[in-house]
Amino acid sequence: MIIAEHLKKTYIVKQGKGLFREKQEIQAVRDISLQIEKGKIVGLLGINGAGKTTTIKMLTTLLSPTEGSYFLDDIDGVKYPVEIKKRINMIAGGERMIYWRLTAYENLWYYGQIYNVSNNVLKERIDTLLKLVGLENKKDVPVETFSKGMKQRLQIARGLINDPQYLFLDEPTIGLDAVVSKELRSHIKHLAKEQNKGILITSHYMGEIEELCDYIYIMNDGVLIKKGTVKELTTETFNRKNYVLRLDKHSKEITECICDKLKVVDATVEVKDENDAIYINSRENISMELSRACMEAGLYIREMYEKEPHLEDAIIRLSREVHHEAVY
Amino acid sequence: MNLKVLYGTMKKELMIKYRAYPAHFFVGNTLTGLYTVLGAWMMWKFLFEGNMAQDFSEITGTGDYISYVVVGSLTYLFVVRTCLNVSRSLITELREGTLESLMLAPFKRAEYFLGSMLVQTLTTSAEIIVSLIIAIPFGIDLSRADMGAFLIAFIVSLYAFFGVSMVLGSIMLYTRDTYISQNTLFAFLFLVCGISFPVQYLPEWLRVIAEVIPVTEAVNLIRVTLLSGSGISEQMQSVQYILLLSTAYVVVGFMQMKRCEEIALEKING
Predict the structure, then answer these.
(1) Which DSSP symbol is given to A240?
(2) What is the bridge-based pairing of β-strands A215-220 and A223-228?
(3) Where does B67-184 show beta strands of DSSP type E?
């Protein structure tokens, strides 16, 4: 398991122009603690330059934390970064991290050498990985002739060349078409669930995070502001419930009638009439009262359901709250 | 020590070089050798009119300026090529977007840089051999060369060039500049390290600086083994001095490189 506690990263940057530039401290990450279990997919989301990339760089030992502790399967990552490097890998979105003048096979071979993968294992692993990312027929073609999606797929193979126990995925599906993205998501699940790898993923596609992640951390301005499962995060962020109601009849009077009946149970209820449907927002579970109100009014319910909030809505809400706090 | 990183880096560098710079790159580099020889010959023939000052012979132990300057210039070519390849290796990775994936791996830095160095040594050696053949009609005299001693001098010199490359490489990575830093250093090395004239002609303070650059003594060592036929046992003091000085450069270079790698990685998205 990866256990990071109170990680901080401060950069010293020089401001201004000329020879005598002023030094300034920038706190990219102010305090983050997180855990990644083997076999689990953990999401790291951020709002407004939150410090996600710096966090991933610290967890992958590319950067040393200014403060805090980091252990991977009881190995101290701050003291022994080389031991951590042997057990992890990272896949970033885009077309970087591979040599464009080498072929797909040569790229994987070279990374195999610097990860000290035994030559007996390496050939078979390269073949398996190329097949996995659908590049087995392009293995001897220089990468510079590849499309963006093909380069990205090769990068995924590169990230698996050392058979890492933990994998860091930084926007892995950015720029990929829908089919390849779906295949990749399915493979990420396979890596976690079948091969027991611990995975940390960042993505701007909330649908992807919802589909994949067992647990999510949300950062803002270098600190952790929320954590939990998708369900926990959305429920916690949206403490009110949303219902959608469609009736056989539709009028302003009916909406007002339902609203009056519901206000007896929840004085804060909001009822809106839009596009042949009635949208109800309440802090209480009022599904029973809603059904009863319709029956009493002699209305036939065509459709009624509670609308589950999406993670994206939760993030937008959190973002607004954070912005509001910053302004006021 | 399985040398996988060294072998892998050599193979990768060769493949990239071969694909990026096909045969005409080799021809171009060989022509640089020709121009070097031709330039030295023209200076000697038309500027000095074949005459050298008497103290030149006293200082260098030879009146053969052509051989002196050709060996010096070709050694300088070696310094430039080696420094270019080794010093630029990490900044090239940075520019091509592979620095992070490289740094993610638990690879051995020394093997990586040595791999870069050996590839350059192979290709530059081929260029230098061609250049030496070109230099024969211009009057280079290698009849007194002690090849055994030269080989040792060459290996010791490579170590010296490696040390200089590491220091230059860390500066390049820190400043993210290749042109100003490398060209300034190369011009400086050409002027003070005894490439085309003895360092004794320099003012005292510049001579002191020249002495603490391992290239100066390395050029001298290669010259004496090739031109005076001096055995390596006679040059042990020089060998020890180069090894000691170069080790200091290697240690400082590696320490600086490690720090500059961190700064470069911070700057990528910082």
Answers:
(1) S
(2) antiparallel
(3) none
Q: Is the pLDDT of residue A328 over 70?
A: no
Residue-level pLDDT at A161 = 95
- Percent of all residues in chain A with a pLDDT value above 70, rounded to a whole number: 95
Give pLDDT tens digits for A144-190.
999 888 898 899 899 999 999 999 998 888 877 788 788 888 888 98
Give how far Cα A60 sits from Cα of A72, A81, A297, B95, Å.
10, 8, 62, 21
CB contact under 8 A, A62 and B107: no
Amino acid making up residue A147: S
Q: Are A62 and B263 in contact (CB under 8 A)?
A: no
For an interface test with B, the pick among A11, A25, A62 (most B C-beta atoms closer than 10 Å) comes out as A62
The gap from C-alpha A256 to its chain's centroid, in whole angstroms, comes to 41
Mean pLDDT by 10 residues, chain B (270 residues): 87 86 73 81 80 79 84 89 83 88 89 91 86 84 88 94 90 80 87 90 93 94 88 89 96 89 71
Query: Higher-confidence residue: A50 or A37?
Result: A37
Q: Which pLDDT score is estimated for B270? A: 47
Of A57, A88, A99, the CB nearest to B12: A99
**CA pair distance B94, B88, nearest whole angstrom:** 10
Neighbours of B25 (CB within 10 A): 13
Of A4-8, A24-28, A37-41, the range with the lowest mean pLDDT is A24-28
Q: What strand order describes the sheet that includes A198-202? A: A75-76, A67-72, A2-15, A22-36, A223-228, A215-220, A41-47, A198-202, A166-170, A88-92
The pair of structure tokens assigned to B202 is 């320099």
Q: How far is A190 from chain B (nearest CA, A)?
A: 23
Q: Which residues of A235-247 are buried (b: 16+ CB within 10 A; e: fewer)?
A: eebbeebbbebeb
CB atoms within 10 A of CB A296: 11
Closest CA to A9 of A45, A71, A52, A38: A52
Looking at the predicted structure, is the pLDDT value of residue A263 above 90? no
Residues in chain A, total? 328
Residue B142, sorted as left (phi over 0), alpha (psi -120 to 50) or beta, turns out to be: alpha
| Largest distance between two CA atoms of chain A | 81
Alpha-carbon distance A218 to B177, whole Å? 37
CB pairs under 8 A between A and B: 88
